[in-house]
Amino acid sequence: NFMLTQPHSVSESPGKTVTISCTRSSGSIGSNYVQWYQQRPGSSPTTVIYEDNQRPSGVPDRFSGSIDSSSNSASLTISGLRTEDEADYYCQSYDGSTLVFGGGTQLTVL
Amino acid sequence: QVQLVESGGGAVQPGRSLRLSCAASAFTFNYYVMYWVRQAPGKGLEWVSAISYDGTSEYYADSVKGRFTISRDNGKNAVYLQMNSLRPEDTALYYCARDAGGGGSGNYFWAKWIDSWGQGTLVTVSS
Asked: Is B82 exposed, middle or buried (0-12, 13-18, 19+ CB in 10 A)?
């Protein structure tokens, strides 16, 4: 199985743009779709990006996803940061029938 | 909207057993792969197990294989997790979750990502 590695934490100011990376340890990042989940304190996760770059209905277009074959990583970019974006973010992919989660990134908006 | 309600969590001693339940509503339950995902206190998400739409196929994380058993009752719109030989490292909030795929009329799609989560049930394993 491969691993997905995320930075432990990132911080940025309101109104700015932040990018969270998710690096796949082995195999191609493009082999399997990557999803991103947001988890606010005390709440269950919700999906903000699926299939690399698709947004579920209701997720603002400030959230975008991409993959980069050269770095074998996926990225979640949040523009126009708001205090409500402060949360933990997890990337997720799959290996056969196993779901693989990244370790999570704590986003602080200060 | 989709509702997933977990129950059955609690405090148990190492080596004991516990059975979690998840009651699903507001969607055609037997069209979907279902999951259990756990989150240890202050830690990240860990996939635990998955079960096919008809219950004929089960999948487990290495950390629980041989100790946990997932099952479902499509007549009751419920999925279960039987947890045996519990260890302190199994202490976590256990989420029931639905795969984003679905299907019907003999065609099923396993998306391998989650579009709905329950609120979780807490399992504490300690002596």
From this structure: middle
Write out pLDDT tens, residues B47-75: 999 999 999 999 999 999 999 999 999 99
Mean pLDDT to the nearest integer, A80-103: 97
CA angle, residues B118, A67, A23, in degrees to nearest 5: 75
Q: How far is A23 from chain B (nearest CA, A)?
A: 16
> Binning pLDDT at 50, 70 and 90, where does residue B107 land?
confident
Minimum distance, in Å, between the CA of residue B46 and any CA atom of chain A: 7
| Interface mutation target, options A35, A54, A97, chain B, most CBs of B under 10 Å | A97
Closest CA to A107 of A91, A90, A89, A92: A89
| pLDDT given at position A1 | 87
Q: Which residue of A has its CA nearest to B51?
A: A97
A96-104: average pLDDT: 97
